[in-house]
């Protein structure tokens, strides 16, 4: 009877006796593997919390020191008498908080009730302060406590995004198998089953059947391998302190993401309402209820990024307008990965040509999705391949109108990057985007330009997405302030600002902006390679301003910074590149996306490096070069810092990268990679230093399949540990040549490699 019950319960062969014992052994193995991963992960997390605790305690103490002891009265609504406490020299909340009840009672005039009330009030203020302080890791001034934190975080970062999946799987197995294995044990022997009561026998057979399903699912998803890899990563010995700091510099975002998750802060957000874009509660609740499948994702999300991806999924047709630097691309990829996990196979991304290669690289690096660029001479073949096999097709505004509409199901999601490019409904690109948005159920527009002061532009975007909202959008809602505007358009618009959500993110964010040569760029580059001119190769991307892919991306970055009121510093090694940049920004008037004429007054360059009117009405200062006197350099920097709102400062990297204080800038653009890495480090350090109150974004413009690629590859193979150590020394600050790892044959080697590559390519 037991055999028959077993077969019926499991839907397969008998699961009593030997077969059941083998299955139970497999379940025990999974259970032990899961518990090992959970225990190791708990230890790793506790190590981070242990390292974090003294740093947070010090920040809390500093805050409490600045709060006068009289504020304790506010907590007790004025009932606390503090005259005796203040007379005893306890002038701050910190002094009371760190005192014991006994110490307070030794003060003449302080009784037991006053001491208890004072301590309770001080603890209440301390708890409130603890919720607001944020630990920042200063890479330029490492000390033992921050080194311990970086090393503890490094173990979790090194395990990668698969660790989260392994821990989730381990928790599920621990929860289910912890209950099922004891219940299934009677099935391991026929005698035990015979003596078990009917109810226990039935429970044992049901448990065996469920264990079989869990084991089969574990095999199908390679859970054993996932758990084994996680256990190995979590047991790996911590890196040396120098290696840990080098890795932190390379992957600081991942370190801060782990820190935010462990420090019990939702996404590192100082204000949950702000991190959720001031959405009405009913929409926020709907977003929180939206699941987010991470099967095809290879990147961890901060809390606000997870919310943004869920918003796009829950609301279906929206504008994500986060300020630049908050990871709109990652949020879009997370939404695409979720839909892929739900069975969708085709997605389409439309973007400016200048960021097409970035999108391709990001999708491949951040997800398991297949990225297919649909651009250039082979675009129709690539499009046909995408329609047949699926993946993420990435195309440009100028190509979109040439692509035939899908004859079957529409893409699972259409993503439109730099969506303000379609603000003019009469242009060809806008009509093409409108045609595709009409076919797609899910549409995500991305723009870093705030819409609150561009109501007509926003109406145009919403017309593509949610035309029924148009009656709700008028100038009066914008006039009431940004929060009121966002609430009025909440069903279709989410925007978060850096100051609201980056309380624990690094003060320095690096982005490599990869571009593909335009035809003009490529011709200039080939000529420089054939001539063996290394310096001409490095600046070939700016030889033709009209066709320069790098220059176009620089314009877009400056325009977005202008939309957010941020100051920008542009560095190049070459004076002629800076002259080209200045002329483009002066004449560009913000690189108007829809090809409209420049605004009145644009293009007014000033003599001798003085301010001219540039992108979006912002002033362009410089360039600061070696031929500009020290006094004149400082005057340009002072004028740049004093300019109201957005402005641009152009600097030759060897002149502007040393000795100047540029912390007024929040965005740094490097026109090309440098042969001497310390030049880049010092240039960025001019903006990212004490006194900088915003996160600094560093955008390095790079051309794929060029000297930029070769240069980075060679320098990456050098001894980066020595380079990282040297960059923190006083010698490096004074004489970069003394510690740079570049060698005299570097230029010759790159020229020869490029000559061979281009010759082989015909």
From TrEMBL:
InterPro entries: Helicase_ATP-bd (IPR014001), Helicase_C-like (IPR001650), P-loop_NTPase (IPR027417), SNF2-like_sf (IPR038718), SNF2/RAD54-like_C (IPR049730), SNF2_N (IPR000330). Pfam families: Helicase_C (PF00271), SNF2-rel_dom (PF00176). GO terms for molecular function: helicase activity. Keywords: ATP-binding, Helicase, Hydrolase, Nucleotide-binding. Residues 309-468 form the Helicase ATP-binding domain. Residues 589-619 are annotated as: Disordered. Residues 609-619 have a biased composition (Gly residues). CDD domains: DEXHc_Snf, SF2_C_SNF. SMART domains: DEXDc, HELICc. Transmembrane segments: none annotated. The keyword Cell membrane does not apply. Residues 553-737 form the Helicase C-terminal domain. Residues 594-608 have a biased composition (Low complexity). This is DEAD/DEAH box helicase. It comes from Streptomyces siamensis.
């Amino acid at each position: 009877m037991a055999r028959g019950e077993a077969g019926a319960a499991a839907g397969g062969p008998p699961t009593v006796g030997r077969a059941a014992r083998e299955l139970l052994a497999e379940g025990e193995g999974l259970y032990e593997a899961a518990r090992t991963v959970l225990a190791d992960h708990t230890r790793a997390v506790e190590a981070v919390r242990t390292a974090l605790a003294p740093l947070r305690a010090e920040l809390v103490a500093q805050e409490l020191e600045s709060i006068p002891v009289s504020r304790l009265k506010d907590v007790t609504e004025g009932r606390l008498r503090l005259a005796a406490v203040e007379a005893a020299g306890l002038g701050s909340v910190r002094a009371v908080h760190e005192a014991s009840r006994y110490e307070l009672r030794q003060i003449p005039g302080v009784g037991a009730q006053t001491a208890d009330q004072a301590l309770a009030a001080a603890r209440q203020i301390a708890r409130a302060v603890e919720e607001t302080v944020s630990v920042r890791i200063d890479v330029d001034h490492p000390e033992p406590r921050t080194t311990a934190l970086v090393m503890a975080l490094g173990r979790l970062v090194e395990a990668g995004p698969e660790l989260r999946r392994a821990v989730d799987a381990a928790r599920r197995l621990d929860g289910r198998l912890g209950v099922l294995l004891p219940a299934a044990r009677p099935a391991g022997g026929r005698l035990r089953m015979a003596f078990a009561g009917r109810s226990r026998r039935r429970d044992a057979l049901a448990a065996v059947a469920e264990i079989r399903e869990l084991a089969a699912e574990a095999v199908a998803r390679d859970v054993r391998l996932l758990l084994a890899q996680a256990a190995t990563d979590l047991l790996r010995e911590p890196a040396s302190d120098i290696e840990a700091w080098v890795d932190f510099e390379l992957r600081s975002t991942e370190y801060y993401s782990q820190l935010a998750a462990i420090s019990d802060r939702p996404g590192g957000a100082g204000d949950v309402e702000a991190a959720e874009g001031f959405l009405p509660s009913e929409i926020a609740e709907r977003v929180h209820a939206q699941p987010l499948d991470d099967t095809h994702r290879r990147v961890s999300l901060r809390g606000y990024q997870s919310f943004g991806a869920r918003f796009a999924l829950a609301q279906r047709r929206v504008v994500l307008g986060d300020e630049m630097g908050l990871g709109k691309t990652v949020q879009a990829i997370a939404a695409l990965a979720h839909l892929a996990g739900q069975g969708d196979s085709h997605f389409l991304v439309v973007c400016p040509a200048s960021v097409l290669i970035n999108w391709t690289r990001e999708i491949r690096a951040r997800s398991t999705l297949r990225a297919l660029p649909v651009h250039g001479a082979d675009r129709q073949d690539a499009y046909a391949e995408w329609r047949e096999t699926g993946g993420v097709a990435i195309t440009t505004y100028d190509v979109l109108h040439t692509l035939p509409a899908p004859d079957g199901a529409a893409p699972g999601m259409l993503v439109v990057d730099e969506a303000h490019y379609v603000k003019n409904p009469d242009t060809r690109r806008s009509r093409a985007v409108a045609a595709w948005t009409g076919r797609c159920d899910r549409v995500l527009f991305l723009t870093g330009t705030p819409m609150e002061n561009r109501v007509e532009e926003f109406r145009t975007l919403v017309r593509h997405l949610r035309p029924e909202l148009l009656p709700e959008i008028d100038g009066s809602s914008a006039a009431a302030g940004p929060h009121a505007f966002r609430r009025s358009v909440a069903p279709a618009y989410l925007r978060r600002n850096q100051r609201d959500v980056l309380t624990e993110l690094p003060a320095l964010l690096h982005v490599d902006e990869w571009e593909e040569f335009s035809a003009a760029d490529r011709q200039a580059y080939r000529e420089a390679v054939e001539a063996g001119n290394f310096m001409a190769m490095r600046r070939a991307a700016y030889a033709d301003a009209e066709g320069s892919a790098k220059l176009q991306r620089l314009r877009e970055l400056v325009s977005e910074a202008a939309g957010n009121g941020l100051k920008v510093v542009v560095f190049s090694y070459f004076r002629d590149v800076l002259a080209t940049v200045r002329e483009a920004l002066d004449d560009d008037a913000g690189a108007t996306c829809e090809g409209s004429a420049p605004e009145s007054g644009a293009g007014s360059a000033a003599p001798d490096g003085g301010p001219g009117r540039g992108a979006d009405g912002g002033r362009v200062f410089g360039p600061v070069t070696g031929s500009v006197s020290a006094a004149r350099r400082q005057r340009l920097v002072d004028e740049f810092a004093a300019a109201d709102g957005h402005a641009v400062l152009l600097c030759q990297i060897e002149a502007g990268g040393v000795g100047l204080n540029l912390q007024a800038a929040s965005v740094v653009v490097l026109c090309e990679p440098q042969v001497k890495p310390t030049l880049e480090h010092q240039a960025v350090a001019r903006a990212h230093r004490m006194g900088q109150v915003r996160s600094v974004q560093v955008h390095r413009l790079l051309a794929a399949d060029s000297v930029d690629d070769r240069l980075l590859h060679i320098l990456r193979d050098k001894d980066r540990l020595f380079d990282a150590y040297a960059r923190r020394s006083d010698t490096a600050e004074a004489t970069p040549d003394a510690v740079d790892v570049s060698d005299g044959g570097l230029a010759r080697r790159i020229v020869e490699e490029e000559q061979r590559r281009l010759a082989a390519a015909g």
